[in-house]
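Recap slide: Aminoglycoside phosphotransferase domain-containing protein, sequence and predicted structure.
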Amino acid sequence: MPPPNFLHENREPGCWAVLADRKFFFLGKLFVKRTLRRHEWSDLGDNYILTPSAALPQRFRTDVAIQQYLRERTNIPLPAFVSVFEDDGAMYLAMEFVQGVRMEELSEQDRKVVEKELLQHIETLKSLRSDTPGVPGEPLMIAPQRVCDFHWKYHSAWRPRDDVKGDFVFCHNDLGQHNVLVDPKTLKITAIIDWEFGGFWPEWFERPFWMRRGNSYALEGEEDDTKRCREWLMANCEEVEQPHLPTFQDKLNSMPRAPKDSDDNPSSQKGAEPTSQKRRAGPVVITRYM
């Protein structure tokens, strides 16, 4: 279901595309995506609102953490710059704009050439091992999109249990041809993107979606491992349901208020020394949310 028409007709400068849960921007040398604010959610009519996943901000944080981790340890091609920040009820992810076409846009012959390099990067990922699952630098991990849909744990992230040990492999978990950018002239990979579901997982979580066009879901005739993945999550992780980001006004409304002046309050009398509570109330809390 597409978002409301007004989102398309009244885009901010630089807005390239609008989906039901996020917006995309090209700003100079930056590519930016952000979550939708609440007033931008899709109204489906009959009192139904299409609510984006509250786990999207954690997905953005995961993407940034993984790229930083891989940049320090591998030669996997990644955007040179990536950052994440929150503003007024929306989470932004900004990164270097990388030139290239998606692998799925190439001819079959050219895709075979690219696949050889891609398999080398996949072997690099497999060489990264951990005895515990998770995302380096983040307490939570996000299950692959094929596992969590509108009907199952849609707003949840996962915290690995402390006692879970094993042999875990670094996975992308959305490694389809749509997430591999390629120089169409040299057929060299310029970047592998969208690491929102990555981290250290059981090796079987990584499915070879790069071998065909299409999204990272099991198509007809392919093995559907959704049940197996869900069982592993429930047995080895704690579910952490995510709240939607508060707007700036929400934060202002939650600020503690100093008591109102009154004739019964000695500190309200002219020339009286204000109480320490009143001296603290304003600037400390406001600074907290600015």
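The chain is about 25% helix and 20% strand.
The chain has a mean pLDDT of 87.
(End of recap.)
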